[in-house]
Amino acid sequence: MQKTLSIIKPDGVQKKLIGTILNRFEKNGFKIVNLKYLSLTNDQAGEFYNMHKEMSFYADLVKFMTSGPCVPFVIEGENAILRVRELMGATNPSEADKGTIRADFAESIDKNIIHGSDSQESAEREILFFFG
Ligand code: UDP
Ligand code: MG
Question: Measuring from each residue's beta carbon to the nearest atom of ligand 1, which residues come in under 6 Å?
Answer without folding.
Answer: 52, 57, 61, 91, 109-110, 112, 115, 118
